[in-house]
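**User:**
If convenient, please work through this fold.
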Amino acid sequence: MAFWSNCTRSTKNKFVSETVYAFIKLRQAVLIKNGGQGYNAHMAKKILIIEDDQFLQGLVSRKFSVGGFETAVATNGIDGVRLEVSEKPDIILLDLLLPGSDGFEVLERMKKDEALKNIPVIVFSNLSEEKDIARAKDLGAISYMVKSQFTLDELDQEIKSILSGTKPADSFFKTLS
């Protein structure tokens, strides 16, 4: 503090000017890196996680919260539908085996609602039969991932590719390579 009080006005002005200039340059670099979308391109993105397994729900929620996403969670289909309306998520991670209304019913209701039908949905389920996958796709899910075949990091990549618009249109069902 003694240093600052001993500085002349012109030295203080120069210091402030250089600091502001450095901040502006840093901000410009970050904006360029993030495609003009601010410091954290997905900071304001909200994920609704509809999952009845509270352990998995907690893991997924923490993973995305730490990654800068906002998360909302529901443990059954009825609460999931309610939160779709109130939270207005950017993307939904949906289990199919849920108490109350199952994931298929949640997806069907959502896709009939004008305010919700354009929200992308990733089905993240243990069901791996072709009929379940086809039904989810027909109901409007954008992606289907079998839980046992993917890590949270791969789920994170899938969500980011969907939100950024870089997900290939023909890659619906994710399988292990």
Summary: The longest helix spans residues 9-33.
